[in-house]
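U., I forgot to send this yesterday:
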Amino acid sequence: MTDSTHALAAGLPDSDLAGRLAERPWSADGERHAARMPVAQPVDLSGLHQVVALIAQPAMLIDTEGRLLAGNRALARWLEGQRSMGLLDGHIRWRHAADQETFSGLLRWIEKAGPGASPTRQRRLRIARQDKLLPLIVDCCRVGLAASDPMSSRVCHAVLVLHDPQASLSVNRALLMEFFGLSRAEAKVASLLAEGESPLDIGLILGVSTNTVRTHLRMIASKLGVSRQAEVVRMLMLLPAELD
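Result:
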């Protein structure tokens, strides 16, 4: 990873994060969401940073201005492999105007949290991504941070989890080895299988025969308590993210 994505993966507070992330100047595709809340006193976001880090899918913590406050390792990897979303002055920007408008609507919904707001705290939306075949699905959980300061009680944040059907799955090899007893070679095979590689291609990548790969797959299935290759992939998709 680059230094900027290392910073993102570390879940740094916004004071450390600003200016350290790679940016893509797509301001022409959408105006910055206007800040309509009064300036609040600083609030402790460390607990939310830790929650985001535990999520296996690409996940981030944002505020109502669309500012990226923290992200996990899966998000850092996802950002490096796509061009639909970028950052401008630490704010999330979508490449296409229609996607930016969808995201701006989400920010307005997040901002409504607080006294008298809708009790609905979760929302799912579709980012069309004009340059992709399949849309990006975004799960959003609105978080109102209460504090003793009246202004701080109005500060709202949200945790976003991204589901990209076109992204390869990055498997936590260390977890497979520690908790399921996979060997290092088996963990490599499992990782490549989760990325969509066939047994033949896995053999070519690792420099072993297809029969050796199939032997590894049988051992992996046995250790995961399943019997079919499709069930192995499903198990791998349910594993938690890296703790590092």
